[in-house]
Specification:
With 380 residues, the chain is an alpha/beta fold. 39% of the residues lie in helices and 16% in strands. It has 16 helices and 14 strands. The longest helix is centred in the first third of the chain and has 37 residues.
């Protein structure tokens, strides 16, 4: 007689098979739903709220490795972010005027806020972008509220992994070359970041200590003298992918010296421009006092972008009007900026009103920020 499998055992196997098929279908469904969720999370990972881009991804998921080096306090899980706004990276748009704050600060000083407003005030139809290395900002701070309330101003996160995503600066960034001198790291990041952003997107870069006095040149590809052997990088304009910005980006890894504050600053820019037009650049002591053309690049005379020397003329800007400051606004019609040289003058305080050149410049060129400073009893 042939062996027969009991009916109860057959039913048990069928039940197991049915259960297995159900589990497989459920796993496939869950995988599909997880994929959809991840896609939606990616698409909605940032939102535009007012004039700032806000990340919707949890901090733990979006924490950048470079943060612990440049902004160590923001890489700690114990760092409170209550009441703060998390920014997200956003690429620059065409013809943007942009500023970089690499100090990891969550707000702006009175002078910095004035600088941003002054650029927006004189260029109401151009996008003005404030990129900050701090992933969270105090958007309720009065001066930041004023700046972000301006129609053409936006703030976003300065994500260094996005800035230095291509060679020739990708390896330089990944190796944290800019951290070889911790005290100067914010300066190195700023010097390199502005050049790479100009190379990638074009537009106008301005330092956060340059008050704009009138509309900037309508043409592209310009910068300005700082001294006979220095072309300053505090104000620069380039078309996207311009050959000079390509040369400057390629020069950074080769020229960078962490022991020198300005190794990838004005001297490097001067050398790059001189290499492009050696016949235009001489050893003349007065060369920085005149405009020089190098192909389609204009190097403006020092006084057109930087009217006061940081070595012997800054008193004219910060002390009660004297000398060159007396008739500055009445006589100047070719100067684009008032450079405050923050590295030398951050701790210098001036009285409000038009008793000083800085005070009058603020009243004329950043009226909303100036009124907020007066209202809240702040310092300029």
């Amino acid at each position: 007689m042939d062996d027969q499998i009991p009916t109860s055992q057959i039913w048990s196997r069928e039940n197991c098979h049915t259960k297995y098929k159900f589990q497989m279908k459920r796993a496939v469904l869950l995988t599909f739903l997880a994929t959809i969720f991840a896609t939606l999370l990616f698409i909605t990972s940032s939102r535009l709220y007012g004039n700032y881009v806000v990340s919707m991804v949890p901090a733990e998921a979006s924490r950048a490795a470079w943060l612990e080096h440049l902004c160590p306090r923001y890489s700690r899980r114990s760092q409170s972010t209550a009441g703060l706004l998390k920014l997200a990276w956003e690429p620059l748009v065409d013809d943007a005027i942009f500023f970089l704050d690499t100090s990891c600060s969550r707000a702006l000083s009175g002078r910095q806020a004035c600088v941003v407003e002054s650029s927006a005030y004189h260029h109401p139809h151009r996008p003005v972008r404030l990129l900050m290395t701090a992933p969270y900002i105090n958007h309720t701070y009065p001066l930041l509220q004023v700046v972000l309330g301006l129609d053409n101003v936006r703030a976003s996160w300065l994500d260094l992994d996005q800035v230095f995503r291509e060679e020739p600066l990708l390896t330089w960034h990944r190796e944290r070359q800019w951290m070889l001198n911790e005290a100067r790291a914010p300066t190195f990041v700023s010097d390199s970041g502005r050049i790479e952003l100009l190379r990638l997107y074009g537009g106008t870069y301005l330092d956060l200590d340059l008050i704009t006095l009138r509309p900037m040149p309508s043409f592209s590809n310009w910068l300005g003298w700082h001294g006979p052997m220095q072309i300053n990088n505090a104000a620069m304009n380039f078309a996207k992918g311009h050959p000079l910005s390509q040369v400057l980006a390629s020069s950074i890894p080769k020229t960078f010296d962490p022991t020198r504050c300005c190794s990838i600053g004005p001297y490097m820019v001067h050398d790059a421009v001189q290499e492009m037009c050696p016949e235009k650049f001489t050893s003349s002591a007065n060369i920085s006092e005149e405009d020089v053309k190098c192909g389609d690049v204009t190097v403006f005379a020092r006084t057109r972008l930087y009217p006061f020397s940081p070595y012997n003329e800054l008193d004219f800007v910060f002390l009660k009007k004297k000398g060159k400051a007396l008739n500055f606004f009445a006589n100047q019609n070719e100067t684009y900026f008032l450079h405050l040289y923050s590295s030398h003058t951050t701790k210098v305080r001036v009285p409000l009103g038009n008793e000083t050149l800085l005070g009058e410049a603020a009243m004329r060129n950043c009226p909303k920020v100036y009124n907020a400073i007066v209202k809240h009893g702040m310092e300029l």
